[in-house]
Amino acid sequence: EAQVTQNPRYLITVTGKKLTVTCSQNMNHEYMSWYRQDPGLGLRQIYYSMNVEVTDKGDVPEGYKVSRKEKRNFPLILESPSPNQTSLYFCASSPDLGTGGVGYTFGSGTRLTVV
Amino acid sequence: AQSVTQLDSQVPVFEEAPVELRCNYSSSVSVYLFWYVQYPNQGLQLLLKYLSGSTLVKGINGFEAEFNKSQTSFHLRKPSVHISDTAEYFCAVSRSGGYQKVTFGTGTKLQVIP
Fold first, then answer.
1. pLDDT at residue B28 in the model
2. At residue B76, does pLDDT exceed 90?
3. I need a surface site. Which of A5, A105, B14, B32 has the fewest CB within 10 A?
4. A17 pLDDT higher than 90
């Protein structure tokens, strides 16, 4: 089944403890992106990647890192999480650069709580 | 820069009644428009999209949307809603052609009342 898989689904952590949220897609998509979803703010893009070793900042990149060493994987790294990073995170992928009209396939989300 | 406005944060509607979820966008160039649906505790899935051609677009689950260039709108409609349509709906826009950033609206929660 074609899908984007995120892990974990739920995560509670403490301030300052480094964490990684994994994202993997099995569709050979070139484009991958991370979003955070907050009430009243919709989805905001954190980082995106147009191909292996090619990443760029989205609208809200502060406090986050990403890497794209393989086409299928696009982990999101929080080096020193803070409570304002408590949010619902989504990974998405697309077969072309950006949308090209195809649209995104989203993962099921990771609900992160930083205390 | 492009932007999307979903004026209604919540829309309650009785089962079997029609519904319209409003979306307005701003962009100085040609755009692609999308509607995504997010069911509780799930990711977003594509409901329908407008790329070009016919301004009336049909999607999954009986939804349709109409692109109106003069009013810069892309409202989502369904003639008769079901309980299972209870979800949050997001409108999104991108400039047409090649890689272009996708901008999402803030979402509209549709609550279908039995």
1. 78
2. yes
3. B14
4. yes
